[in-house]
Design a protein that fits this description.
heterodimer, A: about 160 residues, alpha+beta, Glutaredoxin, 2 domains, four-stranded mixed sheet, about 45% helix, B: about 525 residues, alpha/beta, Rossmann fold, Ubiquitin-like (UB roll), five-stranded mixed sheet, 16 strands, about 15% strand
């Protein structure tokens, strides 16, 4: 993710401390950690386990359970392409496959230049405008192969 | 000053509403036109998004779908006065799509400024809560029970019974939790109401908290809805400033707070116990029931957990009374259902109607058939765990029991239409694959069954021992249906079995048969 900060234990501890007043703070902390550093570093997992007084194994379990949290940095940009039924009814699966093949990627892969990570998503709630996608948080309806190619080009710039 | 509405709704934004709003503002400034742009929710006519509306003495006139390139011509034509233009759809409230609906839950959505407390109140907002304060908690529970409202999340459990169970628990810490983890493909009603009328959800939660004796509410929102997160967080803050959240709300002596929590891409967290685990900061592993969340819920405390639509409908029920709502609908399906029309359709969007409308009418008349122009072949009703319904069953009325009698479900009210190019054995395979990806892993039928399901369907698709593998697949579906802990594994067989039942030809390709 563009603009992510370099990891430091000190910053991680600050983020954790800022959320400790919440009931069940783990998810808000994980979101904040990922927002800050672009991923959830193992060192932050260790800090969280200590702060929440749970084992590192448990904390690791939480991080890896959810599709959104990733343990290594992603590309500078993230494109989520919907694979769910509604988008499939408009040919999304074939379109996505062709796009991935062109980039020589599989789902979840990042282009070699580190520009773009392409992930599957299972419904964006844009089902009247299938196929849909989300590019760095920006929703795109009725996405076609030209738009996908534009995004791949934009991401490289 | 002309008032111009351009939706902030995610679907409208996905079709360019933000750029359009900026272009309209810029053009107005350049022409010296004094306008106010309101970012409203969507009216639900999603094929017309972005839909610009302009207030005129005759009513709000719509123009859509409007692109940035249309802005200059709209101004030239005099759209600020509601003038003719190729994109003019007339008075929005008079549009046939709107006229055919009975908007109850969505009555304000797209109409008001979503973040204006004053407009919410001017459109009957907080009247339900005021009446709740007058009649007292027990009468509120009674009223909700009498309305016949059933959970709109999918299971259709009577909302009043849930509330009564929590209300009857001894006083102490209790919670109100709203399930906004709307993960079903083909559904977007929760998203739309939270973007277009967030105070209705807050008011519903307030009424619920008051009725059951809870002082804290959580909304668990899926991370795929970034615009909802922004709008709803702003709505919480606005409600606080206006004194509708916090301590001693409007002098009632009732304290209540709402907190928004964001999920992290796990479909299973739409299952209520998995959602509670996730809120507690754990893996979203399904809990065995009993105990019910009503007795032992969030952090072990009695908890009401309702879907967004159920909760957002409560204010209207309290305002107009149980009878008004119960008089709508058919059989044991009372009230209205906000249907979400999606997939390969000409006119996709949100269509709220009384229960009982036949499926075929929705697909052929309301949705106008397919966008591709090809014949309709199947409709998946109720999300990825819902059955594929063939055209031969288009007489089925939208009614929980009628669908159940045909081994189908209404779920959250999403309809995904497919044309005749769909390969139903592939869709069945995808159903199993999705279940394998999203299974929480706690119970064996779901965790292993879904992967074995993918493998077995692959063999069928490859023409290997087709008859024997179809029997095996049916047996596997039976095991998953009756042996899984929650609806993910338990309902994943619905799309597979319905595909096998209604579209057997897709599992027995002639060329493959011959090679056997």
């Amino acid at each position: 993710m563009a603009g992510a900060a370099q990891y430091s234990d000190e910053r991680a501890r600050e983020i954790i401390a800022a959320h400790m007043g919440l009931e069940g703070p783990a998810m808000p902390i994980l979101h904040a950690i990922q927002k800050e550093f672009g991923y959830v570093p193992d060192a932050a997992v260790k800090q969280m386990a200590e702060a929440l007084n749970i084992s590192r194994a448990e904390m690791h379990g939480v991080v890896t359970f959810y599709h959104d949290f990733h343990r290594a940095p992603h590309g500078r940009h993230t494109l989520k392409i919907c694979r769910a039924e509604s988008c499939q009814s408009m040919g999304a699966e074939r379109q996505a496959r062709a796009f991935l093949d062109k980039l020589k990627l599989d789902w979840g892969g990042t282009t070699p230049d580190g520009a773009l990570t392409v992930e599957p998503v299972y419904c964006l709630g844009l089902c009247a405008h299938s196929p849909s996608a989300l590019y760095d948080g920006e929703p795109i309806g009725c996405v076609d192969s030209e738009r996908l190619d534009e995004i791949a080009a934009e991401a490289r710039d | 000053m002309a008032k111009v509405y351009i939706p902030l709704d995610m679907a409208a934004v996905a079709m360019g509403a933000d750029k359009l709003a900026a272009a309209v503002a810029k053009e107005a400034a350049a022409r010296g036109e004094n306008i106010e742009i309101v970012r409203n929710g969507s009216r639900g006519m999603l094929w017309l998004e972005p839909l610009i509306e302009v207030e005129t003495p005759a009513g709000r006139v719509g123009y859509g779908p409007a692109k940035v390139k249309d802005v200059a011509s709209l101004f030239d034509a005099g759209f600020l006065a509601g003038a003719a233009h190729a994109l003019n759809i007339g008075i929005v409230d008079e549009h046939p799509w709107m006229k055919k609906q009975n908007r109850v839950t969505f009555v304000r959505c797209g109409v008001i400024d979503p973040l204006s407390v004053a407009e919410y109140e001017a459109h009957n907002g907080f009247k339900g809560l005021k009446r709740a304060f007058e009649v007292g908690p027990a009468a509120v529970v009674e009223e909700v029970t009498k309305s016949g409202l059933r959970g709109r999340g999918g299971a259709g459990f009577p909302t009043g019974i849930k509330w009564k169970t929590v209300a009857d628990c001894p006083p102490g810490q209790k919670y109100v939790v709203v399930n906004a983890d709307e993960g079903d493909s083909g559904t977007f009603a929760d998203r739309m109401i939270m973007e277009g009328d967030p105070f209705s959800l807050i008011e519903g939660m307030l009424i619920c908290g008051y009725a059951v004796g809870a002082s804290k509410g959580y909304v668990y929102l899926r991370s795929e809805y970034p615009i909802v997160a922004k709008v709803f967080q702003a709505a919480i803050e606005t409600a606080h400033e206006a004194g509708w959240l916090g301590k001693d709300i409007k002098g009632s002596g009732f304290d209540f707070d709402v907190e928004l929590r964001i999920g992290a891409g796990a479909y299973v967290c739409g299952e209520e116990t998995s959602l509670l685990e996730s809120l507690e900061g754990k893996r979203g592993i399904v809990r065995a029931k009993p105990p019910l969340p009503a007795h032992v819920g969030l952090f072990g405390k009695p908890t009401v957990i309702n879907n967004v639509l159920s909760m957002a409908t409560i204010p209207m029920i309290m305002e107009k009374g149980a009878k008004h709502y119960a008089d709508l609908g058919v059989g044991r399906s009372r009230g209205t259902m906000p249907l979400q029309i999606a997939g390969n359709v000409k006119y996709g969007g949100l269509f709220e109607t009384d229960f009982g409308i036949p499926l075929g009418v929705v697909v052929n008349e309301i949705a106008g058939g397919t966008r591709s122009g090809r014949p309709v072949r199947a409709v998946q009703v109720g999300g990825p765990l819902g059955a594929y319904v063939p055209v031969s069953l288009f007489d089925l009325p939208i009614d929980y029991e009628a669908f159940a009698a045909k081994d189908s479900l209404i779920g959250h009210g999403g309809l995904v239409v497919f044309d005749d190019t769909v390969d139903m054995s592939w869709m069945a395979r995808f159903g199993m694959e999705f279940c394998a990806i999203e299974s929480c892993g706690k119970c064996t039928p779901c965790r292993l069954g879904s992967t074995r399901g993918v493998e077995t369907i692959d063999k069928i698709r490859d023409g290997l021992n087709v008859a024997a593998n179809i029997e095996l697949l049916k047996d596997l579906c039976h095991t998953m249906r009756f042996g899984s802990l929650c609806a993910l594994g338990g309902f994943a067989p619905y799309p597979v079995e319905s595909a096998l039942r209604h579209f057997p030809e897709d599992f027995r390709k002639p060329a493959l048969e011959a090679a056997e």
